[in-house]
Design goal:
Distance between the termini: 18 Å
Structural class: alpha/beta
Protein name: PIG-L family deacetylase
Order of helices and strands: HEHEHEHEHEEHHHE
Strand order of the largest sheet: 3-2-1-4-5-7-6
Largest sheet: 7 strands, mixed
Number of strands: 7
Number of helices: 8
Oligomer: single chain
Organism: Paenibacillus timonensis
Radius of gyration: 17 Å
Helix content: 25-40%
Pfam family, one: PIG-L
Strand content: 15-25%
InterPro entries: GlcNAc_PI_deacetylase-related (IPR003737), LmbE-like_dom_sf (IPR024078)
């Protein structure tokens, strides 16, 4: 670990607001592990427990009644691998985030921001989230951040889609690329912790050396606020 960078980020706080267990690991697990290793205090918010997920294990060993509890356990294990400091649930039913009273949801997230005082917030983009729950929690978290008015906001992106940001109405200056090479083992461990969701991903369960080749060196974020740090960091 880079000691100088570690000392620079020590004491900073990052709030990640997502919709389901596994969002944090599958999309930006390397980034969370990187900053946790550098002394950043990370709080993860999951709007739901993913009880409406279609994957029940392979072969299936869960059902609609047991899935939520299993996914919560898996998420807590993943948080351990990534170094997440605290996990909070909003206790919303899976696949219903878009139907929750918007002002109520914004208020709950804003209240958390005032309580935690994060230096950086990451969430989903409200139109590029790829799932109604993702877009809805991203929209609410963005509105809460605007009201909170401190720190920096970033939107996650999927894989390397932001190598060509112009396709989505952004420029290279709008994108932050985080090097997570040194934290891919933690990301892989988090993938495996979400066992009922990742058992159908054959590559996840290959030998470590081979499985790690499927994880990219970089994770990409879209700037969501004007007060911006450097090109390769979510923090100044």
């Amino acid at each position: 670990m880079n000691t100088k960078k570690s000392l620079t980020n020590m004491g900073r706080k990052l709030l990640a607001v997502f919709a389901h267990p596994d969002d944090e690991s599958f999309i930006c697990g390397g980034t969370l592990a990187k900053y946790a290793a550098e002394g950043v205090e990370i709080t993860l918010v999951s709007a739901t427990r993913g009880e409406m997920g279609r994957r029940m294990g392979n072969p299936p060993y869960l059902n609609r009644e047991t899935l939520a509890a299993a996914r919560e356990i898996e998420l807590r294990q993943a948080c351990g691998h990534l170094g997440v400091h605290e996990l909070k649930f909003l206790d919303i039913r899976d696949k219903t985030v878009e139907f929750i009273d918007e002002e109520l949801l914004i208020g709950r997230i804003e209240e958390l921001m005032h309580e935690l005082k994060p230096d950086a917030v990451i969430t989903f983009h409200e139109t590029l989230g790829g799932h109604p729950d993702h877009c809805a929690i991203g929209k609410a978290a963005t509105a809460a951040f605007r009201r909170y008015g401190q720190g920096s906001l970033y939107f996650v992106s999927f894989g390397d889609m932001m190598l060509q940001p112009d396709k989505f109405g952004y420029t290279q200056d709008d994108i932050v690329r985080v090097d997570v090479q040194d934290h891919l083992k933690a990301k892989l461990a988090a993938f495996r912790a979400h066992r009922c969701q990742s058992e159908l991903m054959e590559w996840v369960w290959q030998r470590d050396e081979k499985a790690l080749r499927n994880l990219g060196r970089y994770e990409y974020f879209i700037r969501g606020s004007q007060s911006q740090p450097g090109k390769d960091s979510l923090f100044k």
